[in-house]
Fold this sequence. Notes:
This protein is of the alpha/beta class and 218 residues long. The protein is built from seven helices and seven strands. Helices cover 31% and strands 20% of the residues. The protein has a seven-stranded mixed β-sheet with strand order 3-2-1-4-5-7-6, sandwiched between helices. Helix 5 links the parallel strand 4 and strand 5.
Amino acid sequence: MRMRKKKNLPARLERCAPVLISDPRALRGQWRAMFGSGGPLHLEIGCGKGRFALEMARRNPEVCFLAVEREEGALIMAAEKAMEARLPNLRFLSFDAAALGEIFEPGEVDLIYLNFSDPWPPNRQRKRRLTWRAFLAVYDQILSEDGAVYFKTDNQRLFEWSLGEICQYGWLLQNISLDLHGSDFDNVTTEYEERFAAQGCRIYRLEARRRLDKNLLK
């Protein structure tokens, strides 16, 4: 369901300018310099209201954390929280995940988080799923040599489909959990995650890591 349009959105976005990236293409290859840090660069695609991004940035001050959200209603809520938190290692932007190669150089990103992405029906709209092979190709381009994607969802069918898609693409699957909240994984929750878990939904998680030896795919 699309979020309702927020009141005074342009003015609120302007007030949050210090934590919003307005021209991400201009920072291609310069993200760490923008943060003033040589630390790892982590990217969350679809950050919603920002709970996960803010907590990860708090826990990991050495990490440069970028959170992407296309829905402006959610983006402004995340940005306003970030303004209050005053976290120097966290920034937000609105951008199309399919075009991330336009704003990141090859190998510039160290880790990508996909948290509760839209499951989209697997027939006609599977190509919009963020674990679709075309998106994996984009991640493959911008991730560092040992980079990875961390994915979690409450949707069992999407999870099973994603396992197959990632395997077919040739990446390594690691640290798979079929019941994240019943496991020992250190986990930072999202707003959606807490809601689903409270309803008794099982949370699924995986790590997809790039193969270092491309010859293994031949």
